Amino acid sequence: MDEQALIKDALNGDLQAFNTLVLHYQDMAYNVAYRIMGEHSASDDATQEAFISAYKKLHQYRGGSFKAWLLRIVTNACYDELRQRQRHPVTPLKPELDDGETLESPYWIEDDSPSPEEKSEESELQSAIQHCINQLEDKFRVILVLVDVEGLDYQTASEAADTPLGTVKSRLARARQRVQDCLQQFWELLPDLFRLNGEEAR
């Protein structure tokens, strides 16, 4: 995909060129929004608003990483949604396990194609990880999602979050620690690598 050519065509009024960009980035944009928002309907709204905003603001794109530019719009749309929800609180939708607990996570979320027998446990782990991500303050959650979920390098995440590089690194370290601490309450679901040993867990 010739991204720059598509952007140029879109700027000249070619809607199909912009739609091609949307199709290429929509899964990534939605995934970022969902990990930040923690709820499907709000993520749908934020993603839709982000692409509408990107189309309207395309003339403001000045080169560089288009992905970072687009993700900045996505994260801003999420911040807007979160502020809206704070003004008009709703009952949060929390993933629930069979025993009534909740759960989900960031950088070890890679799909290893688990067997059918493992899918239930994997689903519970994902729910626990998202639960812990949801406990983070917005500014920490955004950085964790961009780097550990989407795999962006620090510089691209810095541009996407409009946050200084040093701040990205410090927030990421704190966010990772908080999520790992949170996940200890779901100790039995964690891979051995992420379990604290007996004394630490107590």
* Contiguous helical run count: 9
Instruction: Compute the number of strand runs.
Output: 0
Termini Cα gap: 52 Å
Assign the CATH superfamily of the largest domain: Winged helix-like DNA-binding domain superfamily/Winged helix DNA-binding domain
Q: Tell me the strand percentage band.
A: under 5%
CA radius of gyration is 18 Å
Judging by the overall fold, what is the CATH architecture of the largest domain? Orthogonal Bundle
- Topology-level CATH name of the largest domain: Arc Repressor Mutant, subunit A
What level of helicity do the residues show?
55-70%
By helix and strand content, what is the structural category? mainly alpha
SSE pattern: HHHHHHHHH
Number of domains: 2
Low-pLDDT runs of 5+ residues are: 92-97, 102-109, 197-202
Whole-number average pLDDT?
Answer: 81
CATH class of the largest domain: Mainly Alpha
Tell the overall outline: elongated
Largest sheet, strands/sense/barrel: none
